[in-house]
Known about the structure:
Helix content is 75%, strand content 0%. By secondary structure, the protein is mainly alpha-helical. The radius of gyration is 20 Å and the shape is elongated. The model has no long low-confidence stretch (mean pLDDT 80).
Amino acid sequence: MHRQLNEPSEIGRRFLFVFYIGCCITAIILGVMGLVKGDIPYFGGAALLGGVCFLFKKHGENQLHFKRLARSFPYGDAEDNLPDPIRKQVKSIFKAFHENHDWQQRLELRRKLTEMIHETPELLEIYPEEISAIKPNLASHTPHI
């Protein structure tokens, strides 16, 4: 299968994810060094860097797709092959469906999801649980590996 080069925004997200991992590892190392040497500056550095990592993780999960990147790191994930607009549209359908309780709007979301699956059948392999929660008869036709 031919893989496309990552978009610049995806390269930036991946770089920030690796930077986040590096910060976490550095915070752990500083904490261990503080325990071994008993120096307060190491503990202070570990606490400061740990706080930065915590804030960076919250922002990363909300804006930079760190959860997806964690699943795909370092070998890749099937979700990485989806173009970003399709991925955003599918996730917005999932979110809107579960937040909305009006049956007419839910029916319209099911129709949109069905159209998207007919256009991009890989969605059944990438999001089987989410699709079966919205429209079980679509997900039942996929082979589970």
